[in-house]
Fold this sequence. Notes:
Rossmann fold, binds adenosine monophosphate, seven-stranded parallel β-sheet, 430 residues, 2 domains
Amino acid sequence: MHFESLGLNNYILDAVKAEGYETPTPVQEKAIPVALDKKDLLVSAQTGTGKTAAFVLPMLQRLSQDKKNADKHLLRGLILVPTRELAMQVGESVVAYGKNLPFKSVNLYGGKKISAEKERLEKGVDIVVATPGRLVEHIKEGSLKLDNINFFVLDEADRMLDMGFINEIRAIGEVMPKGRQTFMFSATFTPKVVNLGKSLLRKPKIIEIARQNKTAETIEQKVHFINSDMKIDLLSYMIGSQNFKQVLVFTRTKDGTDNIAKELSAAGLPATAIHGDITQAKRTKALKQFKEGKFRVLVATDVAGRGLDIKDMDYVINYELPSVPEDYVHRIGRTGRAGKKGLAISLVSAYDVAYLFEIEKLIGLKMEEIKTEGYVFDERIPDRGEQHNQRDRRKAAKARKHTPKPEKKKRYSEKPKKLKQTKRNRYEGS
Ligand code: AMP
């Protein structure tokens, strides 16, 4: 199938060609004709399948057909996304795919001054890409009205719900015209997602691109069992000795990202960290520098896991496994995008074993085990009964986080120096 047969106009087709796309991806092939037929859509598609173009291209086409409002820059298209990073990335796609069209768009998200966004809105825009919280802020302050929205996209609906945006989404749904066309995209069709779909969509066409929670076949998934206190050394050894160029490393905690980035940088592997507590300006800068190759490693929490579109990224390493199994699918979806090959390695200590078990069950795949000489795993693995207890212990630990505790030394500085130097020398010499 060719893009020409989807029914898109030449301005859009030229922009798509300029992006280097030759044929539509399955989600584009299925969703675009339905969208152009003015139907609502509920789509389950994995990250990296080309889903952004699947909703942006028909949105642009529909706006182009609205000749009456062609030059008014009246807000008619709204795309809601869960994170700032995704807002920026989708916003970039809107600009790229719409570069031959007269539409104006703006990205609205927290972490930067609202006044600059208001100025842009005052001048008039056709399309808004926004996170729910910031959009509601604009609605409350009267700087934006959704009266004329006729094309609404809810991207990564499952993530939105996980992040607790349900009230904002419902409030936004209330103030939009009922006759609009709505698209809902989600990696997974959980009952909550389906329920939300029922309230926002009208007789939607359902498109399932991949089996629920399936990971892309282009991604090799491996597991390396390792003692917790050897993880950082194994990580730097792996990246250094195998000469991984652009690596995305995921951790569960914000502190963890900073510590790992510091350790890797000290070991001669330039690394930077992004997570929710870092200011938006710094996150944008870190991402830009990583994309430009100034940093070899980007260490991130799951918040950053969504919305990162880094071309030609070959490696994702899970320093710790996520506690929500679906997050694993999203994490590793950062590689192997649009049919390219990718490698995802998970470093699993006794603490992660329970999570590995849940993830393998979810994705229906047993990961291939890899080993590295000198890096051992002899921590005791909790049995299944204990895994549940371990979960309870985690909950208790979370609660303790909010109560005062004695000052504790950072984990990495507690490690015996000798071990660190030995491992470092191993790959520096290679
Ligand atoms: P997405 O799932 O929308 O985040 O897209 C993943 C990646 O695929 C992005 O880098 C897009 O630029 C790229 N992409 C989207 N559609 C196509 C296509 N038809 N052919 C090749 N690459 C594409």
